[in-house]
Specification:
The structure is a single chain. It is built from 19 helices and 14 strands. The chain has 473 residues and is α/β, with parallel strands linked by helices. It folds into two domains: 199 residues, Aspartate Aminotransferase, domain 1 (Alpha-Beta Complex); 255 residues, 3-Layer(aba) Sandwich (Aspartate Aminotransferase, domain 2). Strand 11 and strand 12 form a beta hairpin. Helix 2 packs antiparallel against helix 3, helix 5 runs antiparallel to helix 13 and helix 14 runs parallel beside helix 18. The termini are close together. Bound molecules: pyridoxal-5'-phosphate. The site of pyridoxal-5'-phosphate has 13 residues, from helix 7. Pyridoxal-5'-phosphate (PLP) binds next to helix 7.
């Protein structure tokens, strides 16, 4: 393989990056970043032609192909790619040469953003901590709960189907990361219970007591709607969880990293059950698709008890707690959600989308499950190609599990120009989380594309995908 730039200059420039061919890009990616991830991207057809532009629900490839983004890039793009209002504030910010890194002066932009958050979160949720990623937000939330409880009350209860991040502590409370948790040590003091089972929560709180008969549990961390599979707990579950947490002074941490900012048809998924958490973490769509930004919000009395002393002002902190451009993107993103009524669109279009998926399910028995809430939807397939492909030697078990969905994703992408993802913990599933700016026409074109793919011989579709694996460079 010839790498045109490799031996000409030691350092490459942004212009070099713009001119890099897809092939050379993949080579550098595989060499310096992650060879197997590069392989997977290539197998799915994503590495053959690269996006040169993104706007709204669409990506545009080097050859002019228009791709409909039904993944919302892991649920980050709630207001769509490169929303013009966000581009405008960022352009002005750069032109004015504003201070990017507000560390020594109180930032008016942080001030406005935290005010806005206190407006969209219910009750007295109004003290915010800003950071960089969902995992970091959950890590900070759990630390705050431990500090708030004090007196050695440091047990965290989590659920068996859950994902809260990939740092050591967040992995330790991520029940769906069974595979990962085999490789890395679990931090002590994490107790797993079944998702949706409030009796198990109370039982666990009562089982773990100190000598003074006070529970050692300081917090319960959970997603109001489990993203993958769109698992909606039984009606009343969160209300009951809220009651139990109040009774034993256990802090309720709700993880809205994926579900937040309108994804499920409410601003936050916990609002489907009309409760208020004690701490709520958020990220992904928070930065408006332009800033890598996250945070958590809590009640004043919790913050005061945890970090209220002057010498504790930076007990929990981070160098990067929101660069200026991230902060203004987040301010603008919340305003866009409001002005363009995107949460409402998520609710109404989500219902229509789910109904159409259910129609497809009746038509195609290979679809074994569909579910959705707002514009968070999923489809599960029977892995029809599994048995056939098992006869081909040299295919890892993990690949076999991804066979049907891998084939369907590739077919949707290459023939119908639709980008969709399978979530990390369930290979038989497509997770749909498009920008909330999605239109009814776009739903209809997705449904007819999927219908077309479902009409194909899925075993052949999957085997075509496997051939790509066997032919990998
Ligand atoms: C519900 C949930 N919590 C936490 C995280 C971790 O966020 P990050 O990848 O930004 O660390 C994710 C990421 O997918 C998530 O979906």
């Amino acid at each position: 393989m010839s790498l045109a730039y490799k031996f000409q200059e030691t350092l490459m420039t942004v212009d070099d990056a713009k001119a890099l061919s897809p092939e050379d890009t993949l080579t550098l990616f595989k060499t310096h970043i992650n060879p197997n991830l590069g392989k997977l991207m290539d197998m799915l057809g994503f590495a053959r032609m690269l996006p040169v532009r993104a706007r709204g629900t669409k990506l545009y490839l080097q050859d002019g192909t228009e791709i409909l983004d039904m993944s919302g890039h892991l649920g980050v793009m709630n207001v769509g790619h490169n929303h013009p209002r966000i581009l405008k504030v960022r352009r002005e910010w750069a032109e004015q040469e504003q201070l990017e890194f507000w560390k020594f002066h109180p930032s008016p932009y942080h001030a406005v953003l935290s005010h806005n958050l206190s407006q969209i979160f219910p009750d007295d949720l109004q003290v915010v901590f800003f950071c960089n990623s969902g995992a970091e937000a959950n890590e900070g939330a759990m630390k705050m709960a431990e500090k708030y409880a004090g007196n050695g009350r440091d047990l965290i209860v989590y659920t068996d189907i859950s994902f809260h991040g990939k740092t050591h502590a967040t992995l330790s409370v991520s029940g769906s990361e069974k595979h990962q948790n085999k490789h890395f040590k679990q931090i002590p003091g994490c107790v797993m219970i079944p998702y949706g089972d409030s009796d198990a929560l109370e039982k666990t709180i009562l089982e773990h007591k100190d000598r003074m008969s006070k529970t050692k549990v300081c917090a319960f961390i959970v997603e109001a709607i489990r993203t993958e599979g769109v698992v909606i707990p039984p009606q009343g579950y969160l209300q009951e969880v809220r009651r139990i947490c109040n009774k034993y002074d256990v802090l309720l941490i709700l993880d809205e990293v994926y579900a937040g900012f309108g994804r499920t048809g409410k601003m936050f998924a916990f609002q489907h059950e009309n409760i208020t958490p004690d701490i709520c973490s958020f990220s992904k769509a928070f930065g408006g698709g332009k800033g890598t930004f996250a945070g958590f919000i809590t009640r004043p009395h919790i913050f005061r008890k945890a970090y209220g002393k002057i010498n504790e002002a930076t007990l929990h902190s981070s160098t990067y707690n929101g660069y200026g451009e991230e902060v203004i993107s987040a301010i603008e993103a919340i305003n866009i959600l409001h002005d363009e009524q995107l949460v409402e669109n998520s609710a109404t279009l989500g219902e229509y989308f789910l109904a159409r998926l259910k129609e497809l399910q009746i038509k195609h028995p290979i679809i074994t499950y569909v579910n959705g809430k707002g514009l968070l939807l999923c489809i599960r397939f029977e892995n029809t190609a599994y048995k056939a492909a098992k006869l081909i030697p040299g295919i890892p078990e993990e690949m076999l599990a991804k066979l049907t969905t891998g084939g369907i994703i590739t077919e949707l992408y290459e023939k119908h120009h639709i980008l969709i993802q399978t979530p990390p913990h369930d290979s038989n599933q497509l997770l749909i989380s498009p920008p909330l700016t999605l239109t009814k026409d776009e739903v209809d074109s997705f449904i007819s594309a999927l219908d077309e793919v479902m009409k194909m011989n899925i075993v052949e579709v999957a085997l075509k995908y496997i051939k790509r694996f066997l032919n990998q460079r």
